[in-house]
Each structure stands twice: as structure tokens, then as C-alpha cells.
Fold this protein.
Amino acid sequence: MKNDMINKVISADYQLGFETIVDSDTFPKGLNEDVIKAISKKKEEPIWLLEYRLKAYKKWLTMSEPSWANLDYDKIDYQEISYFSAPKKAPDSLDEIDPSILKTYEKLGIPLEEQKMLAGIAVDAVFDSVSVKTTFQEELEKLGIIFCSISEAANKHPTLLKKYLSSVVPSGDNYFAALNSAVFTDGSFVYIPKNTRCPMELSTYFRINALNTGQFERTLIIADEGSFVSYNEGCSAPQRDERQLHAAVVELIALKDSQIKYSTIQNWYPGDKNGKGGILNFVTKRGLCQGENSKISWTQVETGSLITWKYPSCILKGDNSVGEFYSVALSSLSQQADTGTKMLHVGKNTKSTIISKGISALQGRNSYRGLVRMGKNATNSKNYSQCDSLLIGSHCSAHTFPYQEVRNSSSTVEHEATTSKISDEQLFFLNQRGINEENAISMIVNGFCKEVLQELPMEFAVEAKELLNISLEGCVG
Amino acid sequence: MLDIKDLYVNINKKEILKGLNLNIKPGEVHVLMGINGAGKSTLVKAISSHYDCEVNSGSIQYKEKNLLALNTTQRANEGIFMSFQNPVEIPGINNMYFLKTALNEKRKHLNQEELNAASFLKLIRKKMSLFNLDEKVLKRNLNEGFSGGEKKRNELLQLLILEPDLLLLDEIDSGLDIDAIKIVARGINSLLDGKRSILMITHYDRMCELIKPDFVHILSEGKIIKTGDYSLAVELEKTGFEAFGVQDETH
């Protein structure tokens, strides 16, 4: 394929690169105990949570940034980041929300008002660091479902929060998780009571807006026995020349017979083709299938960020529990993604499925890194992994790092991997049938990702396809 | 419809077409014959702007336009259809979705309204039943795992849906049994309305019998060395290329 063509499609402008002017209440740059105390005070947190933060901070100071990933980036200066940024006025209703914020959501395709009426999706929109407005909260409350910001949970549901916070991802789990535990500003808290099926898709939109602010959201979802919830998370960030850090932690807890489906569309600003600007995305996501017959599914479509470091994982503790990981990761421009999963089989008869689709274009670098561990007692357990890579052009790369540890003799682990390239002949064929380069590439890519996209809730799948198309614009032409 | 003048084309830096002239008027059926390496496929590819072809000099006028200024997609949407000797497999793309996209791209190009899923389904069912084509191929991925014959029938289906003005058929009959050749020929003949034109490459007399050509050209070393009517194909069948002074070095 001709490289100048490739350059044209991929280098199309970042579609969500606009700026919203909000009267931000932003902390000065830098991180120390006072900053953490200030965050905690700002959020009117209970004292135990401040102690939790400070403990994590002390731990973080003793740790060093991991360097094992297949990623190259300039060292992050943690004192050059502001750790809090919030709109000044606390809104009570939609009418009170800054119109420019609402406009931002509209451009993102999530007008709250419309979604409320049409889509039946409850949205917890996180704008920079404070949860702006949670819709549908009241309706959900009738069923005993809690869907609120994590700050709200700290005051309204302290027992649940205290019990489960860091129960899956310990605050000193890794460098970025420790940082998040010290400075997390907001995120979602979900609790689904026993035998309750959450009647709507829960959805959160994250957006990094203010300059030089890191976003450290924290999400905790608990599915009590026999319950079901589907949670969607979408992310985007405006276009900036400066790099921005994002270090989130998501914890999922599935009790006996419950199921959590967690879908992510990540479209943070990827930087330009020379690697200027862009989000550094270091995320710890982990789910615990604590009870028997519980199930956790992670589905992710990662099209954004300059750097992605992310391994949504499952600990399959309960007997007969199931873990799934479906992923599409696209690295174009100068993007680098090191992403995959860990499936830790602890209980008997546990099952896991991993379907990973990596797409590399332009100078993109895409790595799949996955660990499957069959523990001593995880008898009769099964894993199936499939990792496919698709290359577009000749300057990109794809890497696969599968790790397998099997500690019992009755479990099976299967791994399949393929690497393919969009061929000139395929493109010519589609062009000759009247389908232009751009559409042809997007058809081939969507076909390649089909198995993963079909795991997404419908509206989300449509958005994911759109995003893949936008991200591939300029990659051929 | 198509007017080629003094065309020189390279493939991989090697000159294949060396001053070729050809004129095709609306409604005409032309057959290209010649030994392997004579430049038959190269001509068809050059008309479609295949990535391997480099046009060094000469001109191609198509519907009074300078064809060389258009890219592959534009040429396709202007009504040029090239059938492939061995159509490529594209995993993950649903065949029906592909057909619908291709048709709607053309309609968009011609400022016609796009067809919705329901009306497209109706259209395709009608075409398929006319030519005994199995609807199962619609649900499969584009050419993926298709047998040679299935691929060729799928090419026919694309032809019937896209209804091009100029059909470039590069051995559309190869790999087909007699019954299948008849179906393909019937499909092609159904498109001949006195306005559409065909440029066909074939080794088989059978195809010429079924689709009666107006002109038969013998291509040798990148040029047309003899042009005649259908009787030329019949004569070739009897005497072989050597009688026309064509040396087949591959033999």
C-alpha cells in the first residue's frame, strides 16, 4: 500500500478537539500531603478516607514507575501536574449545569436531556474531577440500586465503600494504582442489590478538560448475589499540545450468581503524528468473581491515547465462575498500546475467554500482553485465547506476549494468534467495486473486529464503529 | 464508449503494452485472445487503474472523459466493472453488506437515492432467483472459503447488481463447469441492452459461442495484430496462434 495514502487517512483531525471554557477551580501544580488533604477536604470526605489516601501516598513514594511494558515515552514529572480541577458551582439540576459543559456533551453525542428521554441510559458524567450530574438516580433508587459518584458514596454509603474499596486492587498494587488511591477525585459507585437486574445500561462519560490536570477516577461496582448490571464507560479529551496523565482504577466485585458486564470506549486524544500531545493512559482494572457461578465480562474498544497501559483482569475465585475479555485496540499516528488481560483461575471449573484484536497503522505500536494462570485448586478449568493483529501500512508493528502458568493437570489452556495485513489486492478489489479507500479500510477493520464489537451494547457498538472510522481517517486515501 | 490510443504500460518496470489501439462503441462485444504474456490482463488492469500498472504514454477516453485522470473508485462508479480471475477473500465482511455498500456508493456517485436494506433485499432476491444463484452466499463473508465456482458466481452477482456500462471480463469462465458457464453467459447476455459494452478475455470457444462477439482481437507482444469478427475465433480454434505468426515461447 502506498504510504502517502496511509498518511492521508490516519492524519485526519481529532474530531472531539474543542475546548470548553469553564470557570475552573484548579489546584496549583504539584503533589504532597497538603494537596491530598486539600482534595479530601474539598470533597468533604470522612477521616478514614483521608487516612486511606495518605497511606497510599506514602506507599507510592517508595515505588517506582514500571518499565517492563513495550512502551517508550518521556518521563512523567508528577510535580508538573495539577491534581484537582472542578467547576466552581455545585449544580443541583440539569438547568444549573454550565451550558458550555452541556454543549461539550452534545458534541460528544451524549446530550443528557435527550438521553434521559430517548435512550433510557443513566449517565454519570464526570467533567474533569467532579461528577456533574447523575441522571436516573431516583428511578434506580426505587430498586435499591445505588449509582452515584464515589464522593457521594463516601458520605452516603460509607459502610459499603469501606468494605469494598481496594478489596480487589490494593492501594499499593502498582505504581499507578497507588497514585490513584492517593489522589482520586471522582468516579462512579454502583451497588446492585440481591436478585436485582439493573433495568438500564449504566453509563459514565469521562472527559479531561482543564489544562495540565490529571484525571484520576475511581470506579467501584458491586453486584450482590443473583444480580446483573451492564456498565458503559466512554472517554474523550480535547486536543492539547501538552501531554496529560490519566491513571484510573476500576474495581468490580461479583458475588454468587451475579454478572457484571463492563464496556469501555476509550477515545482520549492520541496526540499528533509526531507524538506531540496526547493522553498517557495508565489504568488498573480488575474484577473479582468472588461467588460461585459469577461472571465478569470486560469489553474494550481503545482508539485513543498516546500511551495505553491497561490490563482489565479477572480473578476467578468462585467455583464455576466465568471471566471474559474482548478487546479492540487501535494504534495509529504515534500511538503505543500495551494492553491485554490477566485471567487468574482460583476456583474449580472456572472458564475464561480472551479475544483480542490489535490494529496498527502509520507509526502505531500495538502489544498484547496476557497472563492465564491455572491455580493448584482450579481443577477442570478452561481458557481459550485468541489474539489477532492487523497491520495497515509498513511502518507500524504488532507484538504478542502471552504468559501461561498451569499448576494443575486437569485444566486446559488454548492460545491462537494470527497476524495479517490489509493487502493491496483486497483494497483494489473493493475500490474496483466503487468503494473508496477510506470506506474499504473501515469495512475491513470492522470485519476484523466483528467478534468484539458484537459484545458491546447496541448504541455503544454504533459509536465504536464510528470511532474506528474516525481514527482510521487519513490512514489510507 | 472507450477509445484507447497508442497505449504503453509497464508492470514492475517491464513494458507489457507497446502502443495498443482499441475502440469500443456502445453495445459492442469485443474478445481479446492471445498467448500468455501477450498483455491481455494488463490491458484490463490498465483500464481499471490497477496498482501494478504504470501508464507511460498514450490516452484512454471513456464516455468522452480522460479516464487516466480518474482513480480506481471513480472509474468503477462511472460504470467500469472488472471481473477478477481469482477474486480475493476478505474475512469479516458480510457479502450482502458489501453488495449493498457497493451499489449505494454508485448510486450516491450518480446522485441517486440510496437503497435501504429492505428494498435492496428485494432487488437481490429477484436477481438471484432469475439466475438460480444460492442465497446462502449472501450470509457468508466476502469470498471467504468460497470454491472457485462460487467466487465466479459471486462475481456474476456483483455484475447483475452493479449493472455497469463497460464490462471487463478476465476469464470469468475459468474454473466453471458447462452448466455454470451457461448461467454466467445468460447473466451477461441479460445485461446487453445495446448500450453496454464488453471487453472479454477468454481461452474458451464455448464462451464466444454463448456471448456472440462483434469483434475478436489477437493480441501479441503488447499490440493488437489482427482484428476480425466471430469467425476469427472459430479459425483460431482450428489453427492455433502459430498460424497468425504468434510464437508461444512458454511452450
Q: What stands out?
A: Confidence is low (pLDDT under 50) at residues 5-24, 113-121 of chain A. Residues 437-453 of chain A form the longest helix (17 residues). The first strand of chain A starts at residue 24 and ends at 26.
